[in-house]
Amino acid sequence: MSKLIQFVLLGAAIWFGLRLYRQWKLNQDRVDSPRGQERFERMVRCSTCGVHLPASAVSANGQCGKCSN
Ligand SMILES: [Zn+2]
């Protein structure tokens, strides 16, 4: 009888562990998704003409494509 109880407890522990792992993995995927980073791209202002652009579209000295040429 005690063997059966041990088996049931072991099964419950494994089930609970897998549930926690899946929940943790889901949260990790949400944090690391590249789509989330794209959505919140920083906007910066051109230091010469004052136009607002995504940070990746501004040159190293803080100017837009038009002003840096
Ligand atoms: Zn500019």
From TrEMBL:
Name of the protein described by the UniProt record: Uncharacterized protein
Source organism: Panacagrimonas perspica
